[in-house]
């Protein structure tokens, strides 16, 4: 059904041999013992999952699945004997299954967990087992397996006509999103942005997985909800009026499919109660950042060796997990609605100004647990008493959050809105506080969960139990006195319960009402009718109290679950507040300023790179003034700061639209619709495609998709091919962007002659970075300046490095004979013009190639580490080459 996924569902090893009914049992199917027969059936029912079969304290696997589980989880492979034969067996301890399940997931398996759904006492014969959960990469619920920072989506893609719809569910929080796009490229971009852990592709749709930069597990699932009717029905079990949520049949089907699958993974017993919000969004309502841009701007991932700082890590001063995920989402989808952006700026400004209120809010938010996921667990009936306590503690913090929020001096509409939405849910809070013990055990069936005073019947039972135990505790003293045996003792063990122990020498003094219970080496153990009766009372009361507690606990949990909607709304509001307070904190700590918007170009005063400035002892701020639609060529030696500059411009733009203040002294910006990046070939990770091919593919999408409202960063386009071709492509690209696209562009290049384009095109401008001498060292000032870099900056750097004058002069002469463009004159001779016009004579081409060769060598030479002798040798070599 899933055209794109391979048969193994993305699993690395031969998953079919591991999942499904074990081959070794097929022939003896009818003779299997009832338990193995049950195992066999469940394997057959969940054939694309590795089945964990609970047997007491262990989840067992058999046959090939056992061998694979033992291998992946590094467990011992044992055997199980049965009348039909001996089967390999591997067991995972139920108590810490999470880490093993994680390993299985990492190895590409989905894991079906078949639990005992009745106790051996309840069972008549074989204990009943059922799959209560299928753990898949996209539907993991266990906190231990989920990072707190990001959402974990399972997504489904469906297509009707040209409409490709994507629906995604975050199973841990119940968030459900749906959207559509009109072509495959936008589909890939949207999936890249969602970064689903798991992907279902409907029979009507296709996804080019090669085009994705994420690699979700491909799921080939016979989900219901594939037809329009089924999907509608499925959707109606979540929202009463699906048409208010979905905008097309494709979206309806995508929602139906993803919900059906999510239900299946949760044991397939009806709608998931915690999925209360199905949100439709339009990708065009967010600033378009595709995976390439997210990667090259290092929003979440640092690509430098050994470096770990990213834009997210610099910003992430969030107080709680809710805020962390909100901030992550904001960074993936900056806004494009100016009003909405400014509303965030207003809120950040208000929080920025009021340090006291801000810190009060943040201190209160630090007490907030992961309310989104806790609520998910409560409504799934999976929360334990500790979870309820954490939920209660979160609600306890809410009045403080509100107090802080009310104290904020300045007005901001977003903050007002949050004040209205943040509801301490007093009833829920009181209920949890009254009902649940402050520090309850993990197990909810063994007592110690419900507080005294909450339930009279329970209190009575506990009192009976306590009195009984007190009576037993005093028994030893009483019996010693009655019998006169000083060594008499009262004890308890699991097998025999309470007993009175008398050592052999004293046995003649044992009273008549003692009944023998157990004989030891040097002593006898007895009970009395009264002790027996008390014991029964204690045990009876304890047992009834435990089960009553469990009952009460479930009632409390169910009434909290009734408030799922409100709890989720509260979680959303706290998340937003944390994200805003974080942006305010970062703005204060790192001296960011509030940007303003206008209809002109990008105007940044003393801008900084938010990440590089963190790692650089002295970061040099730079201005940027890019008229709308201009193409700015950035030249300068390697390591002079070109990439950093270009990225910092883009990051300022992105941050501003996230709602953040920006690292600059001032910024006036347009609202940008998309940020495109195409960075140097050398930065590419070797993929299946040749780097040049990849570079050209990326360039194609930029040239097709950029609009006059886009910001484009191009770093050394054309580098991956021959110099002549590369230069030609670079020039044609500049011209096309300038003449046809009109996107504001920053273009870093080593093709020096491109800088001549500035005189022919009004919108093409030059900026450069230069190097200077600092004592004996060459230093890069990292300061941007008008005009192109000197055509002979390599030679210039050689001079600064201390290469002897005659050599420098000779080199300069050689370069000058080819190209005399300098930053001062900003001119270009006829030869350059001829090259630009493409009308180069064969003779000139040969000379060009030699010069290109020299220029390339000069560029690649790291002068900072070149000794004078090496420089001399190099120059001699260059001279030879030009001489030829
Ligand atoms: N404005 C700045 N202030 C201080 N240090 C800077 C600044 N800009 C860049 N740097 C430092 O210089 C290094 C090189 O910068 P960058 O990578 O931007 O140079 P580049 O000109 O793009 O080089 P290449 O042409 O090799 O790609 C950076 O890693 C950073 O440490």
TrEMBL record:
Biased composition (Low complexity): 1-18
One Gene Ontology biological process: mismatch repair
Keywords carried by this UniProt record: ATP-binding, DNA damage, DNA repair, DNA-binding, Nucleotide-binding
Domain of life of the source: Archaea
Disordered: annotated segments: 1-24
Binding-site positions, ATP: 636-643
Record-linked Pfam families: MutS_I, MutS_II, MutS_III, MutS_IV, MutS_V
Domain DNA mismatch repair proteins mutS family, first and last residues per copy: 710-726
SUPFAM superfamilies, sorted: DNA repair protein MutS, domain I (SSF55271), DNA repair protein MutS, domain II (SSF53150), DNA repair protein MutS, domain III (SSF48334), P-loop containing nucleoside triphosphate hydrolases (SSF52540)
Annotated signal sequence range: none
Example GO molecular function: ATP-dependent DNA damage sensor activity
InterPro entries in the cross-refs: DNA_mismatch_repair_MutS (IPR005748), DNA_mismatch_repair_MutS-lik_N (IPR007695), DNA_mismatch_repair_MutS/MSH (IPR017261), DNA_mismatch_repair_MutS_C (IPR000432), DNA_mismatch_repair_MutS_clamp (IPR007861), DNA_mismatch_repair_MutS_core (IPR007696), DNA_mismatch_repair_MutS_N (IPR016151), DNA_mismatch_repair_MutS_sf (IPR036187)
PANTHER family assigned to the protein according to its UniProt record, in alphabetical order: DNA MISMATCH REPAIR PROTEIN MSH1, MITOCHONDRIAL, DNA MISMATCH REPAIR PROTEIN MUTS FAMILY MEMBER
Stated role: This protein is involved in the repair of mismatches in DNA. It is possible that it carries out the mismatch recognition step. This protein has a weak ATPase activity.
NCBIfam families: mutS1, PRK05399.1
Family: Belongs to the DNA mismatch repair MutS family.
Name of the featured protein: DNA mismatch repair protein MutS
Organism ancestry: Archaea, Methanobacteriati, Methanobacteriota, Stenosarchaea group, Halobacteria
Gene: mutS
């Amino acid at each position: 059904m899933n055209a794109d996924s391979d048969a193994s569902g993305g699993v690395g090893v031969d998953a079919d041999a591991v999942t499904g009914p074990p081959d070794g049992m097929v022939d003896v199917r009818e003779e299997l013992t009832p338990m193995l027969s049950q195992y066999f059936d469940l394997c057959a029912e969940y054939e694309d999952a590795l089945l964990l079969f609970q047997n007491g304290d262990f989840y067992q696997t058999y046959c090939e699945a056992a061998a694979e589980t033992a291998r992946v989880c590094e467990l011992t492979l044992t055997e199980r004997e049965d009348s039909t034969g001996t089967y390999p067996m591997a067991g995972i301890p139920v108590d810490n299954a999470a880490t093993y399940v994680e390993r299985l997931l990492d190895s590409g398996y989905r894991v079906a967990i078949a639990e005992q759904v009745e106790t051996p006492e309840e069972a008549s014969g074989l204990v009943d087992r059922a799959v209560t959960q299928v753990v898949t990469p996209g539907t993991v619920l266990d906190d231990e397996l989920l990072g707190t920072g990001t959402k974990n989506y399972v997504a489904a893609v469906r297509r009707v006509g040209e409409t490709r719809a994507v629906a995604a569910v975050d199973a841990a929080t119940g968030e459900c999103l749906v959207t559509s796009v009109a072509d495959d490229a936008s589909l890939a971009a949207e999936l890249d942005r969602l970064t689903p852990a798991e992907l279902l592709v409907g029979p009507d749709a296709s996804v080019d997985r090669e085009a994705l930069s994420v690699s979700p597990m491909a799921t080939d699932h016979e989900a219901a909800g594939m037809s329009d009717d089924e999907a509608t029905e499925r959707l109606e079990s979540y929202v009463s009026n699906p048409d208010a949520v979905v905008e097309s049949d494709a979206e309806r089907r995508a929602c139906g499919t993803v919900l059906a699958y999510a239900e299946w993974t949760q044991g397939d017993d009806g709608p998931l109660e915690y999925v209360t919000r199905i949100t439709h969004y339009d990708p065009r309502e967010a600033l378009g950042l595709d995976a390439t841009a997210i990667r090259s701007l290092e929003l979440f991932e640092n690509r430098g060796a050994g470096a770990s700082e990213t834009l997210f890590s610099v910003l992430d001063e969030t107080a709680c997990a809710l805020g962390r995920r909100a901030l992550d989402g904001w960074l993936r989808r900056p806004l494009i609605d100016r009003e909405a952006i400014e509303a965030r700026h207003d809120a950040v400004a208000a929080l920025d100004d009021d340090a006291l209120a801000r810190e009060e809010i943040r201190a209160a938010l630090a007490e907030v647990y992961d309310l989104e996921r806790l609520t998910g667990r409560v409504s799934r009936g999976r929360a334990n008493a500790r979870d309820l306590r954490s939920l209660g503690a979160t609600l306890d913090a809410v009045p403080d959050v509100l107090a802080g929020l009310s104290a904020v001096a300045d007005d901001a509409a977003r903050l007002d809105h949050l004040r209205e939405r943040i509801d301490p849910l007093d009833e829920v809070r009181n209920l949890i506080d009254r009902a649940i013990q402050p520090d309850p055990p993990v197990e909810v069936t063994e007592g110690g969960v419900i507080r005294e005073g909450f339930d009279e019947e329970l209190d009575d039972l506990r009192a009976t139990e306590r009195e009984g135990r007190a009576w037993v505790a005093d028994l030893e003293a009483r019996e010693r006195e009655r019998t006169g045996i000083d060594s008499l003792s009262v004890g308890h063990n699991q097998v025999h319960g309470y007993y009175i122990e008398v050592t052999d020498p004293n046995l003649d003094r044992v009273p008549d009402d003692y009944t023998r219970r157990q004989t030891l080496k040097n002593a006898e153990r007895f009970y009395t009718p009264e002790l027996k009766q008390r014991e029964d009372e204690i045990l009876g009361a304890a047992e009834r109290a435990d089960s009553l507690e469990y009952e009460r606990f479930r009632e409390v949990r169910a009434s909290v679950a009734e408030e799922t909607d409100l709890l989720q709304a509260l979680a959303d509001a706290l998340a937003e507040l944390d994200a805003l307070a974080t942006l305010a904190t970062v703005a204060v700590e790192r001296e960011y300023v509030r940007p303003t918007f206008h209809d002109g170009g990008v105007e940044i005063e003393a801008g900084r790179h938010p990440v590089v400035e963190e790692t650089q002892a002295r970061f040099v701020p730079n201005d940027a003034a890019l008229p709308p639609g201009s193409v700015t060529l950035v030249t300068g030696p390697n390591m002079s700061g070109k990439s950093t500059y270009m990225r910092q411009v883009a990051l300022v733009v992105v941050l501003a639209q996230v709602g953040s203040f920006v690292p600059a002294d001032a910024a006036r910006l347009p609202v940008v619709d998309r940020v495109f990046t195409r960075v140097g070939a050398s930065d590419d990770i070797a993929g299946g495609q040749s780097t040049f091919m990849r570079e050209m593919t990326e360039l194609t999408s930029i040239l097709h998709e950029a609009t006059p409202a886009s910001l484009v960063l191009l770093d050394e386009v054309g580098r991956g091919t021959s110099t002549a071709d590369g230069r030609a492509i670079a020039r044609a690209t500049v011209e096309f962007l300038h003449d046809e696209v009109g996107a504001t562009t920053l273009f870093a290049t080593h093709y020096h002659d491109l800088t001549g384009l500035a005189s022919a095109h009004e919108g093409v401008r030059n900026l450069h970075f230069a190097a200077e001498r600092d004592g004996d060292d060459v230093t890069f000032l990292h300061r941007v300046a008008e005009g192109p870099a000197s055509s002979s900056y390599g030679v210039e750097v050689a001079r600064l490095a201390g290469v002897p004058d005659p050599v420098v002069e000779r080199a300069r002469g050689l370069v000058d004979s080819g190209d005399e463009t300098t930053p001062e004159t900003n001119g270009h001779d006829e030869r350059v013009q001829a090259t630009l016009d493409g009308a180069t004579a064969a003779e000139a081409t040969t000379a060009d190639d030699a010069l290109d060769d020299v220029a390339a060598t000069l560029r690649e030479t790291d002068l900072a580490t070149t000794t004078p002798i090496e420089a001399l040798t190099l120059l001699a070599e260059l001279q030879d080459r030009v001489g030829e």
